[in-house]
Design a protein that fits this description.
Number of strands of chain A: 6
CATH class of the largest domain in chain A: Alpha Beta
Radius of gyration of chain A: 24 Å
Structural class of chain A: alpha+beta
Largest interface: A-D, 54 and 54 residues
Number of domains of chain A: 3
Order of helices and strands of chain A: EEHHEHEHHEHHHEHH
CATH topology of the largest domain in chain A: Gyrase A, domain 2
Oligomer: homotetramer
Strand content of chain A: 5-15%
Largest sheet of chain A: 5 strands, antiparallel
Strand order of the largest sheet of chain A: 1-2-3-5-4
Number of helices of chain A: 10
Chain lengths: 285, 285, 285, 285
């Protein structure tokens, strides 16, 4: 389906962006961009706002106030190759469409994830689900790599042997390891993609899925740069304080702030009013 | 967002297709077509099938066997203007994205649905939710039209009067009738759109929503003609028989069918085998 | 978990909690409570955590870190009677199950929403979608009430007249106003209900839906008190600062905080560590 | 609806129903039963129908006419232990809530799926995704079992060795095979569960997931026997004919059927009328 867009994202369409040792992400198609968000928002607000706000202001307003439905109007379709253990985390996001390579229909190719030596780390003591930043002895790393390779070879040899004996594919594959690569088409709208990226770019996500999330983030930035910028400011790099935390914060903040105290930051007059309201709410705790 | 496609659907993009007295459907954008369905299906089945089946056969196979996920890979975005009572039925389909004109932000325009005189019918006796096909006296029809017009005028006058007294818009609108027009952007994938169309093209759907469904059906046919053809054959014009109905059918069908008996219809050899299996299942009841 | 449980929520089951002039919310049934959240979370974390954390700590941890899936394990079913304009806002939440009274099948009862005189307000100047807090002249209020009542009476009289002439119900109803009451069963899980409540308890929501949200909030509090408490602390009463706002905040916060500075608040040692991390992130901006 | 109910399903609550060699399904909780379906349907149809139809007739009507929303009012929560390759098929059903055991947090137990010798079959020639019914030599079966056991042992030994070297759990697990057991809580409403069961009880589903679907089907039958009966008649054991197939069927059916010809089957007068309509539609093709 040839297309002529005037969109910076078209130059990356269908290109393979490498992830991990054998994986990739390809942006296959997309529908809409920043303009589609604005167009959808304006049907809600009617004619009145057309002249008042320009696109960036409107998109930032929508993001800040969790008016999420206009972001659903942009759609992305990716082709992704990824290890099965990453696919298992990924598929937990239910608001997407998926067509995956099937080991019942087809023979799985012999491609396994192998971590870089520097990515092999010890169990974190503070984060029960993650890796430590501390060093692990290099002989342990080497042993891990040896174990992984040996196991991957032998399990694939068993798979091949069963296929050659005409064992049904759906059964022959059951001992293949979670490090095997699979691939799928994955289609999702921008609102739900932002939710995915927020969780999967986060430090608590497993390193191997973060790699993919970051590549997709760059792609979103090409397709909808204003939405991406707003996402970074208001979601990705924001901090939320609980009620009790705000009670603590109150002790450290000045009791009185003059309006002009907030003038020297990169905040619109509307954002200054909102920040001022937030600070007042804290003082009232 | 200018585009150059080689797709027959592009000629209808953004055009207003009239529905009812003031409504319309416009196809604003779409992503994918028959090709996208085939592409997604083939990632599941792997290389093996590429040469065996051609697109039409594959799409028909997918439709027939309820392999619905490849149809999710095609996306449509419509702009629709419709009476609120139609919108209330429409919104029950949850697997879509919506941005609707807001009567809290903006003033509602004075546009109401008025049925054609020939569409005013009496209550059906057999269908508790529908209209009768029987005639209704023409003086009743005239009275209905008069009642509707008078009421619409007076409720809009009340609305205007409240707005002029600076009553908040969100409150001033509460007495506007369900026949008032609203509008929205509505985005949905092809699988879910087929489900919507199946229910809303059906005779049991209210006439006023059927009008929209039929127009959208024509648009789908332009975007993905092979998928539409399969949808008509296998879903829209199919008939399902319950187990007990099949027991009855068994009595009227020949106990034995020779393979060649099924040769004279527009069925592929694979479809003949499937039909033959169905008939055998019936004979076993 | 014995089916005969002594949950404080059972005393409110099926009771009508009045909302607006004719509406109500009834909690018809529910499945699970705080225990179900804990049970589901523990299958993820395995045996290891059972002794370490007690329920409240675990639930607060889940809420704080957006581990939302355990909250999906609690389910609520409500019976709600509400004006159609409220129903139209409500139904935008798609992650729920609904069965609504049908004006195609049945005759709509003559019950309309009538605002209290004190709830009739002028259009807000700062909030384009809301009401002002300023006074509106009492003669305007009286006029609004008169207009609403007159219109409701006359539209219902027209409806009745059409029904008496045997016009089909699906058509006779189209001029009924948005202030008419409808009713439905509405079923939703706790995670999605929290999302609904966050948006609909908020000051930006229309007053008439806030009334319902608050009543349902009280019901949730009975069914899952620990989850509700965590929701209030970490979601409802939290404040999120954007990256730019944090840059401003940085100017007003002390550059150095000793660990003990955070000791005097109602924060667990784990929460103190998290807050300390947040403050460090701000200092690094 | 008193909370202390005498539902036949309560006797099976929490009981382990074995599936495969180490797996199980437990019904942990449920909300609603046939009565909840009827209750929800009646809110749609209003007072009028209460006396006319009894529960069974109403439930069958709903099922037959795809009025699916009342079935969403019944909710099930299962605890399931299952091999990862089964979990990967299962999770494709997105309309459910899941909390799964996490190999990032916890150590995976050494439990693997091992097929019964009789379930090891060759690749089907007619069904590209399935097993043949033909025999496979017993020495091949033995070899498969030996291969599976050897591989499972050695991969788990590698896993243990990495854990003992303090390699992070999220990495140590990546070579564990798809035959390893995992477990989860899985919550779904009856409408979506019926959809799952229709696809997974079907002969085209992999044997290992069919085992679970059948056990869950029995559980549904206990909780909502009338709904299950209707599901079997109208969905599970029904047959759908495409438009072209109907053209063929027409040739084999009598052109004229007297009303009494349909009297001798277990069909209500309403069902006879519907069947008669279907047959007329066929004759018109």
């Amino acid at each position: 389906m040839p297309r002529v867009f005037a969109n910076a994202a078209d130059e990356i369409l269908e290109k393979e962006y490498k992830c991990l040792n054998h994986g990739f992400v390809r942006l296959i198609d997309y529908m809409g961009s920043d303009e589609a968000i604005v167009q959808a928002a304006r049907v809600s607000y009617g004619k009145g706002t057309k002249t008042v706000r320009e696109d960036r202001t409107l998109i930032r307003y929508l993001m800040r106030h969790h008016h999420t439905t206009p972001f659903e109007m942009v759609e992305f379709k990716f082709h992704v190759k990824l290890p099965i253990f990453v696919a298992r985390q990924w598929i937990r996001h239910r608001t997407a469409s998926v067509n995956e390579y099937s080991g019942r229909y087809s023979i799985m190719p012999e491609e396994f994830y192998m971590p870089g030596e520097e990515d092999i780390k010890s169990q974190s003591k503070t984060n029960r689900q993650g890796r430590s930043e501390e060093d692990i002895p290099s002989e342990v790393r080497k042993k891990v790599l040896d174990l992984l390779i040996a196991e991957q070879k032998s399990s694939f040899a068993g798979y091949t042997e069963m296929l050659e004996s005409n064992v049904s594919r759906e059964l022959a594959r059951i001992n293949l390891p979670l490090s095997l690569y699979t691939q799928w088409y994955w289609k999702i709208d921008l609102h739900n993609l932002f939710h995915f990226l927020k969780l999967r770019i986060d430090d608590h996500a497993q390193y191997e899925i973060r790699v993919y999330a970051k590549v997709m983030g760059e792609m979103v930035k090409k397709v909808a740069p204003l939405a991406w910028e707003a996402f970074e400011d208001y979601i990705l790099n924001s901090i939320t304080f609980s009620k009790t935390e705000l009670t603590a914060l109150k002790e450290f903040l000045p009791t009185e702030l003059a309006a002009q105290d907030l003038d020297n930051f990169d905040l619109s007059s509307y954002e200054i009013a909102e920040l001022s309201d937030k600070l007042k709410r804290i003082q009232k705790l």
